[in-house]
Amino acid sequence: MKLLAGNSNGTLAKAIAKVLDESLTEAVIKRFADGEVFVEIQENVRGEDVFVIQSTSRPANDNLMELLILIDALSRASASRITAVIPYFGYARQDRKAGPRTPISAKLVANLITTAGADRVLTVDLHAGQIQGFFDIPTDNLYAVKVIQQRIREISGGSTDNICVVSPDVGGVVRARALAKRLGNVPLAIVDKRRPKAGVSEVMNIIGDVEGLDCILFDDIVDSGGTLCNAADALIENGAKSVSAYVSHGVLSGGAVERITQAKGLKKLVVTDSIEATDAVKGAGKIEVLTIDELLAEAIRRISNEESVSSLF
Ligand code: R5P
């Protein structure tokens, strides 16, 4: 097995390598003066089972091109199998024609990764499960919920008696219900969210009784933070005792860190390290980063050994 990392999340790649007791393959990844990506893998990979670790997070297009070019270099260097390990799969929110004359960019990105030469994909919490089917190569979609529920139990001191899991929108109900079940079938509530335009969210109603409960908002992506902050305020207005949020992918763009820090209703935000934390995230006392290194390392080990990964789901 060989592990290779792009520039998107070196910290997670190093942590995965450490868990697997492997070193990262030496490679030069640089930019020409005009911004073009150049890659040179500095170790022999002929006949190797190679895992390329790269999230297509911000800067999404640069990181995507790095991933494609790394895969191309490995393919031309005769690697026997190339697995694209994409902890955060960007472009996932463009998974359908949202209006006339709009693209399905998630499908295009899946095609690009396959055409570049990837044999498999390993990813975490795809925005929509059906994106798995956009790839015509085997794709394993892991769930961070196992790691997240452990952290919730640690923070709550083991007792989940007063917890209510809240889906921040109707689309996230299946995900939220899975967490509620893992926490011992705790109550579930749903935020009826409307998005009048991209990047703006409005809370219409809270479905379910949250009076006196410690609410856990559970989502796959936090981007501007609007969804979480608005939901937290509405939950407090509806009598919730406290509101914390647990999210798989901390996109946290624009003024999101500031917005979350200022949000009175939101006590804490926990994100995974599927996207490398910026200095602002690291410095925000309210935001905690939870690692998914062991989850990904175990999946990589099993794929390499041709073992089942289903028990990780
Ligand atoms: C939407 O379907 C997603 O699950 C997230 O709720 C959304 O991407 C969060 O975006 P923001 O933080 O910008 O409100």
Written description of the protein model:
With 313 residues, the chain is of the alpha/beta class. It folds into 2 domains: 2-143 and 294-312, Rossmann fold (3-Layer(aba) Sandwich), CATH 3.40.50.2020; 145-291, Rossmann fold, CATH 3.40.50.2020. 31% of the residues lie in helices and 27% in strands. It contains 9 helices and 14 strands. The chain has helices at 10-20, 60-76, 105-116, 145-155, 173-182, 226-237, 256-262, 279-283, 293-304, and strands at residues 2-5, 27-31, 37-41, 49-53, 81-86, 120-124, 139-142, 163-167, 188-197, 200-207, 214-222, 242-250, 268-272, 287-290. Strands 10-9-8-11-12-13-14 form a 7-stranded mixed beta sheet. It has a 5-stranded parallel beta sheet with strand order 1-4-5-6-7, with helices on both faces. It has a two-stranded antiparallel ribbon with strand order 2-3. β9 (188-197) and β10 (200-207) form a beta hairpin. It is globular and about 60 Å long. The mean pLDDT is 96. Bound molecules: ribose-5-phosphate.
